[in-house]
Amino acid sequence: MEITLSHAEAEALRDTVEGFLHELRIEISHTETREFRERLRERERLLERLLEALGHEAAAGTAP
């Protein structure tokens, strides 16, 4: 799948993902169930990859 975003859209998405990551990390630290914590960590890694892609694309002037 390919999505084309304007610079402003990519920036808004990046800000939103960063905010969600902050909340997700708090949730991970409070989660007692190992299986659920692992699922949250996988989501965290996925979102970090997304942020990395958005950062590289924003630097180029476009987003995936």
What can you see in these coordinates?
This protein has 64 residues and is mainly α. Helix 1 runs antiparallel to helix 2. The longest helix has 27 residues. The protein starts with 6 loop residues before the first helix and ends with a helix.
Uncertain parts: none
Q: Which structural class should the secondary elements be placed in?
A: mainly alpha
Total count of strands: 0
Rg over CA atoms, rounded to whole Å, is 14 Å
Q: Which band does the percent of strand residues land in? A: under 5%
Our count of helices gives 2
Largest sheet: none
Helix content: over 70%
Mean pLDDT: 88
SSE topology string = HH
Distance between the termini: 9 Å
What would you call the shape? Answer: elongated
Compact summary:
The protein is mostly helical and 64 residues long.
Element layout with pairings:
Blueprint: H1 7-30, H2 34-60
Helix pairs in contact: 1-2
State the main characteristics.
64 residues, mainly alpha, 2 helices, elongated
